Amino acid sequence: MLLAVLSACHWGTPRNPDYLPHCSPGWCLRLRASFLLSVLPLLDLLPVTLPPGAGPGPIGLEVLAGGVAAVAWISHCLALWALAHSPHGLFRGPLTLALAAFLPAPALVLTLLWHCQRGTLLPPLLPGPLSRLCLLILQLAALLAYGLGWAIPGQSREPWAQEPLLSQGEEPEVAEDGESWLSRFSYAWLTPLLARGARGELRQPQDTCRLPHKLRPIYLAHAFQAHWQEGARLWRALYKTFGQHYLALGLLKLVGTMLGFSGPLLLSFLVGFLEEGQEPLSNGLLYALGLAGGAVLGAVLQNQYGYEVRKVTLQARGAVLTILYRKALQLGPRRPPAGEALNLLGTDSERLLNFAGSFHEAWGLPLQLAITLYLLHQQVGVAFVGGLILALLLVPVNKVIATRIMASNQEMLQHKDARVKLITELLSGIRVIKFFGWEQALGARVEACRARELGRLWVIKYLDAACVYLWAALPVVISIVIFITYVLLGHQLTATKVFTALALVRMLILPLNNFPWVINGLLEAKVSLDRIQRFLDLPSHNPQAYYSPDPPTEPSTVLELHEALFSWDPVGSSQETFISHLEVKKGALVGIVGKVGCGKSSLLAAIAGELHRLSGRVAVWGLSKGFGLATQEPWIQFATIRDNILFGKTFDAQLYKEVLEACALGDDLRILPAGDQTEVGERGVTLSGGQRARIALARAIYQEKELYLLDDPLAAVDADVANHLLHRCILGVLSHTTRLLCTHRIEYLEKANVVLLLEAGRLVRAGPPSEILPLVQAVTKTWAEDGQEADSATGQSVGNLEKTKEGLEGEENTCGRLLQEESKKEGAVALHVYQAYWRAVGRGLALAILLSLLLMQATRNAADWWLSHWISQLKADKNSSQEASGPTSPGSTGLLSAQLLLFSPGSLYTSVFPLPKAAPNGSSDVRFYLTVYATIAGINSLCTLLRAVLFAAGTLQAAATLHRRLLHRVLLAPVTFFDSTPTGRILNRFSSDVACADDSLPFMLNILLANAAGLLGLLAVLGAGLPWLLLLLPLLSILYDRVQRRYRASSRELRRLSSLTLSPLYAHLADTLAGLPVLRAAGATCRFEEENQRLLELNQRCQFAAGAATQWLDIRLQLMGAAVVSAIAAIALVQHQRGLADPAGTRLADPGECGVPGCGAGVPAGTAKCLRWGDLPRAAWREVGHRGPHRLWQVFPVVGALPAAGTQFGASAAGRCGHQPAGAD
């Protein structure tokens, strides 16, 4: 059976893409031997029909053994075939599999010795035994041949695990696809990634494993697009694409929930076995094995459920982000601000995907509640009604809290949108702001928006504190009510009932407290869904509907407009542009003139499809080829000058040289440090206005279009450069094309074929220049005044040399690289990061939080100790009454306490099956014990409330301090910092990273502190009450440390890389929105969408790897917990057999807390980055002795996350939806 199981684990081994069709001789020999060994056991069954005595055992056992052997070898043969055609085929394959193949050898040798002792070869020879002996010899020979096949060496290449990973540009492995079920359950396929992390080789996103096929953005885009159409509901398309698989995971959730209650039931049987002492030992062993098996199976199912839900979430995320970007490419004239679009990409998409973790909890928690109530009724009867009524009062309270938090969340998102929008505008005009010294004034406006945002966050945090208080205090209050009611009904409390009721009350509070937060998470997802849906419902740019499907009526006409009415607003409320009739011939130069604001740029935008066409007809010849568009505000990418000009087109040296000459860029490139390989800042901030205009014009010319729309490209240059551009470019290189030139310099339109005169958005005259130009009122003699804001071809070069050297000094290296890749810290998070957050909270407030936390845990331990003392007195009185009535059996006293066994991972808390009642005890002062217990519980409740309030105040103080410091340092940073840093990267700090400091970090820190205090209290309790359990701690600590070290080394870097890959997504979306008209005119939308998919795939790779590493840790921690369960059950059986006494102090061990710590926290990467960016250097004129540009890049590398010590919180009941309070008890 072991051979069959191990072999089946390798059936899904992925093939080697470069494998040879013929296996090596060793593999061939092993395959043939395995096939023979699968046939021989079947042939060995034939002699069974002969007279008795043919075999060493009963016939039924012989048939069973032969059948099992045949199945095992068939399974092994299939595994060998899969391994031979995989990378394992280059060597011997897994050693464990080969060793398992030799497991039948001892049995075969013993059978051969049996035949020799029986004298099978001595006369008289019997056909049955003789034939079986021959088959046995053949099996031994085949097994020997198998060994020879394994001994034959493979090729000279060593196993891939021994090679340097990702050397010589190799691609990393594909995650999960083709792996066996055992590899999937244990995440063995993650071993190469974790090995790279342990060696410190996870330095860039490409070092992570490649995504499985069904998680790749290209696959997700095609799958989602099959169910998506314009105007459709987003949730419906998501359901049709991923809904069936997601709903099927509900079965996994259901089985896991049921297994969560099977543990207590098995524990009740085991406790009954220990207390009664009348059942055979085999029953106790079955209970213990069932308990261990259920814990393992439950751990695997819960882990797989969390992993599969995470995969569905990533699938939906990939689809949503893809459709959001695709919609951004199709937006019409009505476009949202870049800050709002970035919030949709970051915050709203994440909130929407919280639905995946909340939906199954929405029905799972009520089911868990119903089962818990039933089991509580089995324990204490109708006494549970009093506690249930009190618990039900929690529902409306939580409903009110959830409603308030949802409303506050909506208002906070609006304030956040306003803040990010204001910061976006601030960054876009940072040069002007610094020139005029407006940093303080605009910083005050941002702080005002932040104050309104923090006001809503204040409400949310203190409501969270109320939930933390209810979470911690309500179980104790409900327990007291149940115990008092139970005693008043005339029943006697016993140890089993007290601790069972306590555990069940905790299980009761979990769904009652979490359910409103699950609903709140669903409502938040609904709010974000509505925001995304409104964005998707915005009018789209539809060229098929905008332009006439028929070409112009005249073959020589390139452009024709007839009775065309355009507007920037879809209802025509803004200024309209009306063209009664216009025809533009091929190769014509058309000038467009008019007063400022008369609609010249609007006419070009209307031709390019950037306005709403309210009526009329627009026909363009060769529409599919696009336009050459040079806008009035040049759009420049954060790239090299050559890349800006090529714009994705193949480099043509001759054409490129002609374009540079036509646009007078030669002198400018010669003074740059790397020529056309010099990187320019975002929006071309390191260039002058004239340089930006000429590079944008060069980009349009290099695309080689038939129709060019030139919106005043001569405005930013002086007369000499304008004359050069007119003759060398517009009348030179573009002479064979159709050109529409909008300009105020009417002197350059004398050679135009047609001049259009616009007034108030109407085409009033059209004709030759001699007729139209005299009608235009313009300054004709003072063009030199315009030269004050322009540059000449030579003067600009000389003047720009000084400007360029000043702007690029220190930022550009010898290769002309301005944009620096966003770096990240490596290794553990530095101590100063924690110190910075400590200072942000405030030293006094932080110490108060820690003190209240310790007081909370101390009073809780005191309450547990008092309960144990109370139950000890009850048991002592019971034993006294039993001794007075007569002797007792050894098995009925000195048993292992039931509460010792009340432990299992997750929700396997305690025995829930009705146990034998204790004898009545009239000597116990129930009122006294309950009064003391209630007093201690009340003090614990006050400490819990104090801790929750102080923690909320501390996190709010930290959030305000971090943002203030970040904003202050960014505003005082030198201008060169903004030249070399993309706006998307800065917005990432102020958007998602600030959100981490506001929300994610407090949530995780709350869990960390609560579990750290709980762990300290548990160790103290174990040391006092169950000292023998401490013997397991060294082994568990070693295992836990090894697992954690391997996990942390990779998870820390993966979290950093996840945050690192978000900034390019933000920057790419902002860049796309800024240059959307140019993208669509040049037909580059497909290329930009492919770039977005590439950036998204890198981020998804990091997100997937980080989630898989978390599940890798989770399954190991849960299996360690299952091992502890098994160990306690085994020790219980041993103590039962030896009749060891149970010390009363063992009742101090709370059964629900004896597991391996499964919760933890870490500093999110975004928060650490906010801390690091708080150290940005100030501008030189702001701070004497500031750090120079060479130190600039040392102050904002991405700082990663401390991974969680475990993962239970990641799969919590509410799935971290909304602001679920951490368990403070």
TrEMBL record:
Q: Tell me which GO cellular component terms the UniProt record holds.
A: basolateral plasma membrane
Q: How does it sit in the membrane?
A: Multi-pass membrane protein
EC top class, as a word:
translocase
Cell compartments where the protein resides: Basolateral cell membrane
GO MF, one annotated term = ABC-type xenobiotic transporter activity
Q: Where is the ABC transporter domain?
A: 559-785
Q: Which Pfam families match?
A: ABC_membrane, ABC_tran
Q: Which Enzyme Commission number(s) are listed? A: 7.6.2.2
The protein's UniProt keywords, in alphabetical order, are: ATP-binding, Cell membrane, Lipid transport, Membrane, Nucleotide-binding, Repeat, Signal, Translocase, Transmembrane, Transmembrane helix, Transport
> What catalytic activity is recorded?
ATP + H2O + xenobioticSide 1 = ADP + phosphate + xenobioticSide 2
Question: Does the record bear Cytoplasm in its keywords?
Answer: no
First-listed, main subcellular location of the protein, grouped into a coarse class: membrane
Q: Where is this region: Disordered?
A: 787-813
Any one biological process term the GO annotation gives: lipid transport
Signal peptide from the UniProt entry? 1-45
Q: Where are the transmembrane segments?
A: 63-83, 95-115, 130-152, 246-272, 284-301, 382-402, 466-489, 501-523, 1007-1040
**Domain ABC transmembrane type-1 residue range list:** 247-524, 847-1139
The record's family statement is: Belongs to the ABC transporter superfamily. ABCC family. Conjugate transporter (TC 3.A.1.208) subfamily.
Q: PANTHER family per the record?
A: ATP-BINDING CASSETTE SUB-FAMILY C, ATP-BINDING CASSETTE SUB-FAMILY C MEMBER 10
Q: What is this protein called?
A: ABC-type xenobiotic transporter
